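Researcher: Structure for this, please.
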Amino acid sequence: TYGILLGGKRNRIGGTTPASRNVIVGNYAAGIAISGSNQFPATDNVIVGNYIGTNAAGTATGFLTGSKGILVDGGDGNTIGGATAAERNVIAGNRDDGIALANYISGNAANSNLVLGNWIGQDALGAALGNSDDGIEIWLAAEYRYLPVRIRFVGRDGEAAGEQLASDIQVSDQ
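Model: Predicted structure, token format:
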């Protein structure tokens, strides 16, 4: 089971105050899953200010989430995190990837999603806590391999720390 399974439009999970924060941990599947299809799109959703995979203080792993911290499968135009520290999600202690943008369940690509300002593999104080697999996984089936992919790096202060254009990604058919 998922902690939260979302298949709609314009929903908000979490908020910018401790009272609006969700602590999502101990799920069999992903902590938060956004799943959309052509018929039922999952677009323009916002996930901010949550602790996913950690204890309530955000400083240690909770009862491990069985899969990814956040899975966006076939959802477009969603935002995970934000430009301020209050919008940051802490995503650590998960048994798989911190965040996965994919199309391996729905068959629809996860396009134009924004992942910004999150602490992935770090606790709420910035110390290493880790996830068991990748911090961010971008997985696309053969028919959705659009390149180039622009990756922007943002420092802890919210300022742009660099940008990379990935146009030569090694892709396998596994």
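Researcher: Any notable elements?
Model: Confidence is low (pLDDT under 50) at residues 170-174. The radius of gyration is 15 Å.
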